[in-house]
Amino acid sequence: DIHIESTQAVPEARLIVAIENPNIGKFVSLSSPFKNFEFDIEPPNTTIRFCLKQAPLLVGGYKLNVSLFGPEMDDFHSRVLQVGAFQIIGPKIDTNGYGVCEAVYLEHEWEKV
């Protein structure tokens, strides 16, 4: 849940959630407009629920940064760095060529042709 406290209304607000890890930094940003989610901020507070349904991430620690914008491109309101954190504990990674490594798992297949 993203809890926003405000003394003024913000129509057509936009949220961006960025995910980063210590090895590669920020590697993905997810925005409310991309999913056609529209909301207004009403004082004194508004709560927005963000749900990541699939996370094809590999073992490691990840942090969340949240940015709040109004309706215009340059209408920046606030950014909170490392507002949340989570840990992925599996599947195992292997940097010696026998598994997968880095941060993201992509479904794939191999075939000899």
Strand fraction equals over 45%
Q: What do the pLDDT scores average to?
A: 91
The best one-word shape is elongated
Which regions contain 5 or more consecutive residues with pLDDT less than 50? none
- Termini separation (Å)? 48 Å
C-alpha Rg, in Å? 18 Å
What structural class results from the helix and strand content?
A: mainly beta
Q: Helix segment count?
A: 0
Order of H and E elements: EEEEEEE
Largest sheet: 5 strands, antiparallel
Question: Would you kindly provide a written description of the structure presented here, covering whatever features stand out?
Answer:
This protein is mostly beta strands. Helix content is 0%, strand content 47%. The chain contains no helices and 7 strands. It has strands at 2-5, 10-21, 25-31, 39-41, 45-48, 60-69, 76-88. The strands form 2 sheets. Strands 2, 3, 4, 6 and 7 form a 5-stranded antiparallel β-sheet that branches. Strands 1-5 form a two-stranded antiparallel sheet. It is elongated and about 60 Å long. The model has no long low-confidence stretch (mean pLDDT 91).
Task: Offer a few descriptive terms.
single chain, mainly beta, five-stranded antiparallel beta sheet, two-stranded antiparallel sheet, 47% strand
